[in-house]
Amino acid sequence: MLYRVIQRSWLKLLRPPVGLAVERQRTYQVFMQIYLFASLAHIAFVPVLVWLDSLLLQLANLACIAINLTAISLHRHCRFSAALLIKILAIVTLITLGGMLMGQHTGFEYYFFVVLFEILISEMRRRYKLLLGLSLLVLSLVSVNALYGTWGHWPHSEASLRVLHSLNLACAGILFAYIILQMHFITERTELRFRTDASHDSLTGVFNRRAIFERADALWQQGTGFSLLLLDADHFKSINDSHGHSAGDQVLRHLARLLDNTLRDGDSIGRVGGEEFLVLLPGTSRHESQSVAHRLRHQLAEQPCRLDALALPVTLSMGLAQSHEATTLRDLVELADRRLYLAKSSGRDQLVIEGGEEVTAYAGGSAAVRVAGDSLL
């Protein structure tokens, strides 16, 4: 039970505040992880400092824990610079004090590099990073060469000094590795989100216009045979007019989910217009593509979009073209578009698989071979 409470609290703290810019969310999560992990490290060091029998170091360590908690609160309220500065001040004071009380070769100096790394990856302006970084380097040199050992020396055996030195080295290394790994993982998640946002339609979750046409172009460039299915929801405007745009959005999401569940793993779907979708079917014959369209129509008829007790049935007009029917991708899309027009102008709720090769057929319909229901007309 306690573990679950801690886990939920940890995840809650890692969740960026509402309204925080996307480009700053990675930094927020990285430094929140740093503050949380540093607090745990200070807590873990409590028995070590008790063993060292230094009341001053124990009090300084407890102060670091309190200051880390304060930094977490400040960071949570987007006061990033203030949070980092008080955290840096606290840890630098502790590691300087530790060397002054315990003498040379204790390993406290390794933490200067962890603090320097935190400064360099922060969102501070470059001149502040440079100023703080140089100040920290100077302080580390002065501490190691002039301050360490001025208030006391190692009171225990040489073997125990080596143990403390190794412990500090390992802890600093773990902190350093933890920060780098968290940056890597959070960067990967952030980049994945950016890529997803850039390639997917925000309303339906399927590919957006640019992404689906990039996939079509890739298939075309590879010389892979494919079918291109262009479909449009019939009388969609009447749904928006009668039930509101939120109902129309729900219908589009339902249609996108149904399309995604109906298609094979290698197929792709994208939203290319308001209620218009484009489906890519690699390696499919005309007959196989017709089967996909029939299956979609049946699924949509059996599972209409529902808003509470209200059912919103939707039919589809579709135009199908195969890659071998055109010499360029643009011509192929235009051919499927003309066939979609033929399907809509000929009564809707049907699939047109032939005709439309000539521009004059765009306004006609006599050249079209239509699939209405399950029958080829």
TrEMBL record:
Stored Pfam families: GGDEF
E.C. no: 2.7.7.65
Entry keyword Membrane: yes
Keywords for the protein's UniProt record, in alphabetical order: Membrane, Nucleotidyltransferase, Transferase, Transmembrane, Transmembrane helix
Residue ranges constituting the GGDEF domain according to the UniProt record: 224-356
Gene Ontology molecular functions: diguanylate cyclase activity
EC category name: transferase
Transmembrane spans: 34-52, 58-75, 82-102, 131-151, 163-186
Cross-referenced InterPro entries: Diguanylate_Cyclase, GGDEF_dom, Nucleotide_cyclase, Rev_trsase/Diguanyl_cyclase
NCBIfam families: GGDEF (TIGR00254)
Protein name (database record): diguanylate cyclase
Organism for this UniProt entry: Litchfieldella rifensis
